[in-house]
Structures are given as C-alpha cells and as structure tokens.
Amino acid sequence: MPIERSILGCARKAEQHCCPSCVMMFSISLKYFTAVVLIAQQAGNGKESCWQTVSANAAVILTLLTLFVLIWQTCETRRAVNIARSTLVSTFRPRLILRRVSLRPGTAIPTLGSPDPHKWEVDYAIANTGGAKGDITVRSFIVKMFNADGLPVPLPYAPPVEESPFTLGPGEEKQFSVELEKELIFLFRQLGVKRGNLRYQDTKYVYFLGYIHYKDELGIVRKMAVLRHYNTESGRFQVENDPDYEYSD
User: Fold this and answer.
1) Are 64 and 26 in contact (CB under 8 A)?
2) Separation in Å, CA 54 to CA 45, 114, 202
3) 247-248 and 221-231 as β-strands: parallel, antiparallel, unpaired?
C-alpha cells in the first residue's frame, strides 16, 4: 500500500540522519500511526464514503510528516550544539604550565637514626592558564643529578605517581613537591645550595624533569614535559631550551 511505503521510507531516513534516541522515539510513533492507518483503511471498506477514507489517510500522512520534521529538527539542533561545544572546547582548551620550580633546603645537620624534620625537596606548581578545565591523569617528576657525559636519551623519568586523577579549572593551580636523592642532599649540605664550590661538582648537572598527561572536556589526551637545569650561581631552576625535553601539546 502507498501509505505503508511512505511510513517505511520515513523510517529509513530517520535511521540514516537521526541519533539513536530520536530513532527510537520515531519507531514508537510509527507503531501508533500504523494503527491509525489500519483503522482508516477499515473505515474505507465499510459504509464510510471514499472522501472520508482519503481524508483520514491524508491526515495520518500529514501528521507523520510533521512528526518526522520535528524529530529531524531536534537532531540537527543537537548536532549543531555538539559542534559548537567541540569548537568552544578546542578554542578555549586547557593549557597546563609549571610555575615556581624552586629548591627548598631541608635540615642542615641530620640526626643519626632519625628522619630529617624538614625534607630536602623541590617545590613546583601546576597551573591551568587555559579557558577550560583539564583532568590530570598522569604525573611524573624527579630531581636527578647527571655527570659530564650529558643528558641520556631517553631521559630517566620517574614512575608515574599513583593517585586519583584531579581537575584544574581555568585559572587554578596546585602545589606539589618532590624529594631529592640522598647523594644530592649530601652535596648540598657540604657545599651549600649555590655558588662556592658547587660549580666544580656534579651539582652543575642537576635537573628537574618530568611530564604530565591530561584530558580536556572532549576526552582528548594532551601531554606536557619539562626539563629545568639547576643554576649553581643563582640557586634557581632554568628552562632548558630543547623541544624534545620541554614541550606542551
């Protein structure tokens, strides 16, 4: 019958162009209107006039087409909203940076058999300077002292910190710290944290290195890595200008 073919054609178009939820709603509506069509056809086989039968079928088709247009408009609106959201997140994406990487001297004179009351650590802050929130899923940082042979390839990153992912909103930051190795603590205690004899020791090859993995609201994974060299003259960590070690997606 022509009306069944019209209903079948609308169903196929809905499957091709609409989202699953709208297709389900459309299928439920089809069952209802199919029943209306059968009633109209039965009325045409009885004592009803031909004009009444044609009017009933036309009303069903018009209603069905109106419903399909409404569902299609809903799908298109939802698709436009998703595209706008994706564009917005891509434009105002999260951007993580590291701030205030600094050495924090600990206990100068250790007590044998007792832990230091104040640990030797390097403090740093992870800040989100972007326009959207970022979910940090992996974090790995370490302070390492190398020798005169230079930096190894690849860098010996520390194992990722096992922690629950955390979120940084736009403009937010969070403070962290990482402990120094025992050999480096010994040298700093003996020679001080800057100038003096440090320039003649392996402390001139001290680096703060690590990386972060984070996701934006679309689930896109981004990476950031840092490599900061400890300047024994100023006692500060400085950016190492090497795109293989210092970069941000």
Assistant:
1) no
2) 12, 97, 96
3) antiparallel
Put the strands of the sheet holding 173-179 in their side by side order. 96-104, 121-128, 173-179
Token reading at 33:
């209107």
Cα–Cα distances in angstroms (integers) from residue 190 to residues 144, 150, 242, in the given order: 18, 24, 32
In Å, how far from its chain's centre is CA 71?
32
Q: What is the DSSP letter of 152?
A: -
Q: Measure the CA angle with vertex 146, ends 143 and 152; round to 5°.
A: 100
CA 58 to chain centre: 52
Note down pLDDT in tens along the chain; length 249 residues.
454 555 555 556 555 555 665 556 556 666 656 665 566 556 555 555 555 555 655 666 667 667 667 776 777 777 666 655 556 555 679 999 999 999 999 998 888 778 888 999 999 999 999 999 999 999 999 999 888 788 888 888 998 886 778 999 999 999 999 999 998 898 888 888 887 777 667 677 899 999 999 999 889 999 999 999 999 888 899 999 888 899 988
CA angle 80, 17, 37 (to 5 degrees): 125
* Separation CA 182–CA 223 (nearest Å): 30
List Cβ neighbours of 151 (8 Å cut-off, separation of 6 or more).
207, 227, 245
Q: How far is CA 161 from CA 140, 157, 223, 249, in A?
A: 6, 11, 15, 21
Q: What is the DSSP letter of 197?
A: G
